[in-house]
Amino acid sequence: MINVEGVEIRWNGHDGFRFDSNNKRIYVDPYKLIAEYDNKNDADILLISHNHFDHLSVEDINKIINKNTKICAPEECLDSLKKNYPANSIILLGHGETKKIEEGISITGIKAYNTNKNFHPKKDGKIGFIIEINNLSIYHTGDTDIIPEMENVNPDVLLAPVSGTYVMTAKEAIKATNEIIKPKKLAIPMHYGTIVGSVKDAEEFSKGVNVCKTSIQEIE
Prior knowledge:
Blueprint: E1 2-4, E2 7-13, E3 16-21, E4 24-28, E5 45-47, H1 58-64, E6 70-73, H2 78-84, E7 89-92, E8 98-102, E9 105-111, E10 127-133, E11 136-140, E12 157-161, H3 170-181, E13 186-190, H4 199-208, E14 213-214
Parallel strand pairs: 4-5, 5-6, 6-7, 11-12, 12-13, 13-14
Antiparallel strand pairs: 1-2, 2-3, 3-4, 8-9, 9-10, 10-11
Helix pairs in contact: 3-4
């Protein structure tokens, strides 16, 4: 866990994160959560980037969701979310759309797609998120390659995939971070150690980023 200006950031493995600030708890893409999360059901807000099994994982969502959890996701997730969580508020989010979810918390959708592979086609509408929490901006890229939509985001904190195969390689993530996104405070590698990639990819990313600090997180 790392604290950035009053926001606690926990990596839950793969693309999954938990953010805590002002008694509000936000989860992103929970997948293969550790036993600590069994029956926790403590999510105020749940963000799902796209409909692949390692992002929209009903098994893991069931561990952290409750009847008051607000779910924010792209349209391709709607059928599954409505089927499994009919009582919850579902907020659809597309590229460039900003939704105020709670006081002090707003979410903006940013496209996430592949440019040289076909796992995440641009036409699908999969997204990443710019999460604004009490004036701190966190850019969770989702599953993506280097894309033009990354330009001018300039967040405080960047969460970037580094494993290759389905997303950017560590070298590509370094280029995206240093030359395009340019986070102001911190960059954290993700999308490794579960399906593809290893901590070596995270270490390569950490060594190569020079525009801000980096932090390799332990799974919590």
